[in-house]
Specification:
By secondary structure, this protein is of the alpha+beta class. The chain has 14 helices and 26 strands. Helix 2 crosses helix 10 and helix 3 packs across helix 9. It is globular, with a radius of gyration of 26 Å. The structure holds zinc ion (ZN). Zinc ion binds next to helix 5.
């Protein structure tokens, strides 16, 4: 069945809420635009994606360090990084209804003009004003009400600067040799004028990033940039996303951020068109040079062989965690007919899936079956903690429920499992989500099947 993009998006938003993946933030109070909360299945899915990033980009590599910087940072950091000046969108207001829009989004502007036209009105726009995206707050104790001493701080607009301001601490504590990287995962905040497309453009979101520092040299820069571009592309595919749904695109010169020497995006073919999933940016020595200038602290790296000093260049790999969750869900959604019944399922990669397997007794009113199923459940829990138990309703309904949340395997304990004389004693059926096919395996074989699939 051919599904339009917006219909697919509606189905994912609805499934995400109905099945406990993602809820609108503070929903009982009417919610906040561009803010979402993760439910039990969503938080596992997100955790699995982050863990996969952490393993590949940080933990498995000898040349990368992990860290975790604070969300609150002083205003001076954002002056140095250039965000106070240029991290902004042009904002216009409709004089008729006071609706606010981004002046650089022509489809939004014309849609709004059309909307007024239908009501026999004419939209009129203010001149665009520059609207800074950094979220501001205050820190500090109040001693006397008339003398409130507070200092303005910002919730970080990107997690990158948390690494950059710690560059010297990493040098002094870990004594790394170039090239080396620093990676982290964490929340960032942007005061988006028009948050939209579910998890795609939010006001509070999570990023996963690697800053990879290299010798300041053109040839080395090109080589490392190519390497990380391919590394990031391969990683994104390994989330289980279909190959032809991803592409690499170079930024045009006028599209690049204020710091970038070269920039490419990995884009995903989403219901909204090709959208940015990941960025690979050649930041040069922009960040270290600016922090050196603004803080007065030397950010130079000393070559331990020659004693030569240099400001390293930085190749950045940066992706949105929530976007990866959204694109993974969109890409995995399938509808088909199985045993003459229409079903929907999520073809999630087993290592990403929220639940790895579901264990179930064929009938819930047979104590021996239930007891044996609990035994199998406990054994499989040793392979992975995310092994579910379900004995509700008939077995067909249990399978559908697991299909819909993307559980790759269902294991059923039946009378053959108990059969004292049968050669099937101590075997179970293992059902595959995508095909509905079942096979008969011993309990250790089923455990091994799951262990291999989720690696
Ligand atoms: Zn209006």
């Amino acid at each position: 069945m051919v599904m339009t993009g917006s219909l697919l998006m509606e189905k994912i938003v609805s499934l995400a809420k109905r099945r406990g993946f993602i809820f609108p933030g503070s929903e009982i109070y009417g919610g906040l635009a561009g803010i979402y909360d993760y439910g039990p299945l969503g938080v596992e899915l997100r955790h699995n994606i982050k863990q996969h990033f952490w393993n590949r980009f940080i933990a498995e590599r000898d040349d990368v360090y992990g860290m975790s910087a604070a969300i609150l940072m002083p205003a001076r950091v954002w002056e140095a990084s250039g965000h106070t000046e240029s991290f902004a969108d042009p904002l216009v207001e409709c004089r008729v209804c006071h609706g606010r829009f981004r002046a650089d989004q022509p489809t939004d502007i014309s849609a709004h003009e059309e909307w007024h036209k239908h009501k026999k009105e004419k939209a009129e726009w203010t001149q665009p004003t520059i609207f800074n995206l950094l979220v501001q707050t205050q820190l500090g104790a109040k001693e006397k009400l008339e003398n409130i001493q507070q200092s303005t701080v910002y919730l970080r607009g990107e997690i990158t600067q948390g690494v950059q301001v710690n560059f010297k601490n990493i040098l002094d504590s870990m004594h790394p040799k170039l090239p080396f990287g620093i990676g982290q995962i964490g929340k960032a905040f942007r005061n988006e004028i028009a948050p939209r497309d579910f998890l795609f453009r939010q006001r509070e979101f999570e990023q996963m990033e690697l800053q990879y520092y290299i010798r300041p040299d053109e040839a080395e820069g090109k080589k490392q940039f190519e390497y990380w571009k391919q590394f990031a592309f391969d990683w994104y595919q390994s989330l289980g996303i279909q190959k032809d749904h991803l592409r690499l695109r170079q930024h045009a010169e006028d599209e690049r951020a204020h710091y970038a020497k070269d920039a490419w995006d990995i884009e995903y073919n989403s219901p909204m068109g090709w959208k940015e999933a990941w960025g690979i940016h050649h930041r040069g020595d922009w960040d270290l040079r600016r922090h050196q200038e603004y803080s007065g602290v030397s950010m130079e790296y000393t070559d331990s062989d020659t004693g030569g000093k240099m400001l390293p260049w930085d190749i950045e790999c940066s992706g949105g965690v929530d976007r990866a969750v959204l694109f993974t869900l969109l890409d995995a959604y399938r509808e088909d007919e199985l045993n003459k019944e229409v079903r929907s399922y999520l073809a999630l990669a087993p290592k990403i899936a929220s639940v790895k397997a579901m264990v179930s007794p064929l009938l819930k009113n047979k104590p021996k079956l239930v007891e044996k199923a609990h035994e199998v459940h406990a054994a499989l829990k040793k392979v992975h903690s995310a092994i579910a138990w379900d004995d509700n309703g008939n077995i067909g309904k249990r399978y559908r429920r697991q299909d819909e949340i993307g559980t790759p395997f269902c294991i059923t304990i039946d009378f053959d499992t108990l059969g004292e004389t049968s050669e099937l004693k101590d075997t179970v059926t293992l059902r595959h989500r995508d095909t509905g096919e079942q096979e008969r395996l011993t309990i250790p074989e089923a455990a091994e099947r799951i262990r291999l699939a989720i690696q």
